[in-house]
Batch of 4 targets.
Target 1
Amino acid sequence: MKNFKKTGVILVTMAVAFGVLAGAVAYAAENAKDVVNYRKSVMKAQSAHLKAIKAIVRGKVGYTGLLGNHAKALDLTGKGLTDLFPAGTGPDKIKSRAKADIWKDWKKFEASAKKLNVETAKLVKIANGGDKKAVADQFKVVGKACGGCHKPFRAKKKKKK
């Protein structure tokens, strides 16, 4: 009787786990367009903050007091970045510049995203310190970390004819 209860618990646990997994996959597939649009919005927000920081550190505008805010926003939008790439949102399922290599080499993708998180966290600390030169130096490092994902994992824009 004891083994029967154990077997029953194991089967129920497996059924629940399978149901949750199947539901998550179905959810991602059903909402792939929404997920990709959300992902694009987050990436555009990151780009906007990068452009704002660049304008400040290059002296095009004088909003140095806002460097910390832009750095923090960049850092926050980078958290959970890999969550924006669930199965079913790749180029085989929906129009996207995300390459299939993301899902083929997930560990490398995760490592690249983590590198970005580390470097943007450093940027926040430096930006709050007020040293514009140090911010400019770390900004370059953040840019390289962005390229660590974009170069191997994002397809180039197709030129409009």
Target 2
Amino acid sequence: MRILFFAGLLILTSQIVGFGQQRYAHVNLGNLIAAMSETEKANESLKSFQEGLIAERDRLAEELQVRYSKYMEDKEQGRLAPKSEVVIQEEIERDRNELYQLEQSLSGQIAAKREELLKPIFEKAQEAIRRVAEEQGYLMVFDTSAVLNGILFTQDSDDILSLVKSKLGI
């Protein structure tokens, strides 16, 4: 009986001691991503992509405006047959709807491109964080970059941003 009591006490003590050795760390993932050289390249690529989409939209809008102005001028001058007038109106309406659809899809296209460009950067950063955490013996690493990250209080933890940057060669 005495042996069981001491064995239980030993197990409980070892768990308490082991519990106190757990290490926690934090890193500002936003700052880490911003410091990576790949992020600047991705932002430049995204800006170029966005400017190309906007230029195409503007070109189509300009063409539509020119066609509409010519149509109105021809209509006022009586140079259009009634059948031609209807056909041109339908074409202009179709083109206007296509332009509207394009405008609606721009933000989705830009968001998809952003995700495509940033995903490998985030994966690289997360892998570096994982490696540092394993090498340094951290149980958990918290991201402090989120506005509402859910951590309202925590005891002191180590900021491993410099270790992760070093792992990435930054």
Target 3
Amino acid sequence: MGRKISVVFPFILIISLILLPVSSPAFQNEPDGFGGVLWGTDLSTLSGMVYDSQFTWAAGTTLFFKRKEDTLNMEGATLTSIRYGFWEGKLSDVLVETRGRKNWVALKRACFEKYGQGFKENYYIENYRWSGKITSIVLEYKESEDLNTLLMKSEVIYEQIKSKLRQKVGEQ
């Protein structure tokens, strides 16, 4: 069918579910989607989406697609990919990846200019979070892997996912 998504995304996803609170105040310019696509948009209404990978977990399967029309550049950062995640057919996540220190600096600068400084939990780790009522964002630099990731997720969809997970746990 397609390749399974890398080990990096499940780790980021699980950590973001744990660390990002739901009832946070909004941050500046909090987005309600990505690239002109709103959270919760049904996959069937979008054109130019190409299947990329999937991530199966206790809450079901999130299918990831790339969009043919996307330009792989974000405010001076050259991107390696933009993946749109759809849980139960609705846009729930966006994962942006880039490589190299130069692209990290450009991506970080773009995020800080747009969303503010973000929350940095550990002085020694290049990891920033923005938690809002609509969207939560994790920006991470992993020098050892030469990988930079920007994960954006819909808080509304993730509340639905958490509810489904609680139901599954209650059934066991």
Target 4
Amino acid sequence: MQLPAFDISITSAFWGLVIAVPCSIVGFMGTIVPVIPGTAIIFAGFLFYGWMTGFQSLGAGFFAGQVVLVAFSYLVDFWASAWGVRRYGGSKAAARGAFLGSFLVFVIGPAGLVAGPLIGAFLGEWFMGEEMKKALHASLGSFWGFFGGTILKLVIATAMVGWFVSAI
């Protein structure tokens, strides 16, 4: 008895989606939870799908654009907190402190993306001789900047997935 023939491309696309869809879901969670590298996981799922399908529907332009979006999403992590500090009336020193504090992610892990800018903005204002109330206000700005950055990363992740869906 002969088994039915299966189209390899359909089977490969199916298995590619079996990985790409959960990666996209986990990636969306990662844009909210600092512990998970959201857009990088989404990209990895797309890369797996491309590999499984022989890169037939996802070309170099698609992947180059996705790399730009992933890089931009990580820049947002560092930039958004400093922007929030300035928006809340913090000084340039507080904004620099929030930006530099973002690098605590490399020292204390993902919690550094939230705690680092808070601490950095506070210290930036405080070392400039501002009152504790203003320093705390600048820290609050870094939190709201982080929140705004999270919203922007969700938009980026949605654009990535939308592009993927339209490309396949």
